[in-house]
């Protein structure tokens, strides 16, 4: 199938914090599968990262790290476009135009804004935090993406993107493809090791919250051995919140090995939580070892990552500029001659 007849997919991850096994099992792993069937754009969303304060040197370093991890997990730059959001100015430009169409009421209703702004001093919250979903809509709509693989927590932002696209289309005529969310089925939602009722986050301060993709193996093991469980002893998949820790460990085991729930429960029947943790640590370490080897190879090859990102920015710009030119024409901007 030619690139043009394939459906387009776009997704992105912020270069803040450290990528975790949650990012891998819940997102990156799916992206690798999607690259075979879709025309994919995967960006490192640095513009989004600065909606909260970032250290400039760390931001630059994390941007390269996330891009290198995209490659290390198996995204093939010959098949997909990997780029840094700020390298394609069209994102910021479309964000402006869309923000003029964004009702404040919609933006204030976003749960992510409510959560993140609640943690800030009220009068110093940046306007960018409120506009976060509009920038995300720009990311998606510039590429006329049909599908957007995201975690369940981004569902509302996807709905917002669709609403905004429909609003633009009805005001100015059909311009944007209306994107669908592609939310992974069960088994992909990994919770915090120390707080198994909340999604594993890459920007959590606590040392025992998440296994990072670049953690040394002994650190991974230590974190998993410390995971919160409960006072029971039965090792079964269970929706009961009181058993969320064990359920999470089993979910990690399942997502990592691909075995069925029944086989996993049978395997652990009669065993203790210590055995479960050891087994989870083993499979996770084995899964990530080749990713780390590949990561080290990529960052060790001078100039390689930069050239991939330069090529990615070029390919992304081509598509983004085409959409942006049409948008500018529709809203009535005078063409530059
Ligand atoms: N908001 C997304 C997240 O935190 C990241 C993101 C930014 C994104 N732009 C996007 C995801 C476009 C999908 C498509 O997970």
Helices and strands in order, then pairings?
Blueprint lengths: L7 E6 L7 H14 L4 E6 L1 H4 L6 H17 L8 E4 L5 H10 L4 H5 L2 H8 L8 H16 L4 E3 L5 H18 L7 E3 L34 H9 L18 H14 L3 H8 L4 H28 L3 H28 L6
Parallel strand pairs: 1-2, 2-3, 4-5
The site of tryptophan has 13 residues, from strand 1 and helix 7.
Descriptive tags:
337 residues, mainly alpha, Rossmann fold, Tyrosyl-Transfer RNA Synthetase, 2 domains, three-stranded parallel beta sheet, two-stranded parallel sheet, 13 helices, 53% helix, globular, binds tryptophan
Quick structural gist:
With 337 residues, the protein is mainly alpha-helical. 53% of the residues lie in helices and 7% in strands. It folds into two domains: 3-183 and 302-331, Rossmann fold; 217-297, Tyrosyl-Transfer RNA Synthetase (Orthogonal Bundle), CATH 1.10.240.
What this model shows, in words?
This protein is mainly α and 337 residues long. It is built from 13 helices and 5 strands. It has helices at residues 21-34, 46-49, 56-72, 90-99, 104-108, 111-118, 127-142, 155-172, 217-225, 244-257, 261-268, 273-300, 304-331, and strands spanning 8-13, 39-44, 81-84, 147-149, 180-182. The protein has a 3-stranded parallel beta sheet with strand order 1-2-3. It has a two-stranded parallel ribbon with strand order 4-5. Strand 4 (147-149), helix 8 and strand 5 (180-182) form a beta-alpha-beta unit. Helix 7 packs across helix 8 (155-172). It binds tryptophan (TRP). Tryptophan binds at residues 10-12, 14, 45, 48, 136, 139-140, 148, 150, 154, 157.
């Amino acid at each position: 199938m030619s690139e043009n007849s394939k459906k387009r997919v776009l997704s992105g991850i912020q270069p803040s914090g450290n990528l975790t096994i949650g990012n891998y099992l819940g997102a990156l792993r799916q992206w690798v599968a999607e690259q075979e069937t879709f025309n994919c754009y995967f960006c490192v969303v640095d513009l989004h990262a600065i909606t909260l304060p970032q250290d400039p040197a760390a931001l630059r370093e994390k941007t390269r790290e996330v891009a290198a991890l995209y490659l290390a997990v198996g995204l093939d730059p010959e098949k997909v476009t990997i780029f840094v959001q700020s390298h394609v100015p069209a994102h910021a430009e479309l964000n402006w135009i869309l923000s003029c169409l964004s009702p404040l009421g919609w933006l204030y209703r976003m749960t992510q804004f409510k959560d993140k702004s609640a943690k800030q001093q009220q009068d110093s919250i940046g306007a960018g935090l409120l506009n976060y979903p509009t920038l995300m809509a720009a990311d998606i709509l510039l590429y006329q993406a049909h599908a957007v693989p995201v975690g369940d927590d981004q569902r509302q932002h996807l709905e917002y993107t669709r609403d905004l696209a429909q609003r633009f289309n009805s005001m100015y005529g059909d311009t944007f493809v209306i994107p669908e969310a592609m939310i992974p089925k069960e088994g992909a939602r990994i919770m915090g090791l120390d707080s198994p009722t909340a999604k594993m986050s890459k920007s959590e301060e606590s040392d025992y919250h998440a296994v990072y993709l670049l953690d040394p193996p002994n650190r991974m093991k230590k974190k998993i051995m410390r995971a919160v469980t409960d006072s029971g002893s039965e090792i079964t998949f269970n929706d009961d919140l009181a058993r969320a820790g064990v359920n999470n460990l089993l979910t990690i085991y399942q997502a990592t090995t691909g075995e069925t729930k029944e086989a996993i429960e049978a395997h652990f029947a009669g065993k203790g939580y210590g055995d479960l943790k050891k087994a989870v640590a083993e499979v996770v370490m084995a899964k990530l070892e080749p990713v780390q080897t590949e990561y080290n190879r990529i960052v060790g090859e001078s100039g390689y990552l930069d050239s991939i990102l330069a090529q990615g920015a070029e390919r992304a710009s081509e598509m983004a500029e085409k959409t942006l030119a049409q948008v500018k024409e529709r809203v009535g901007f005078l063409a530059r001659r």
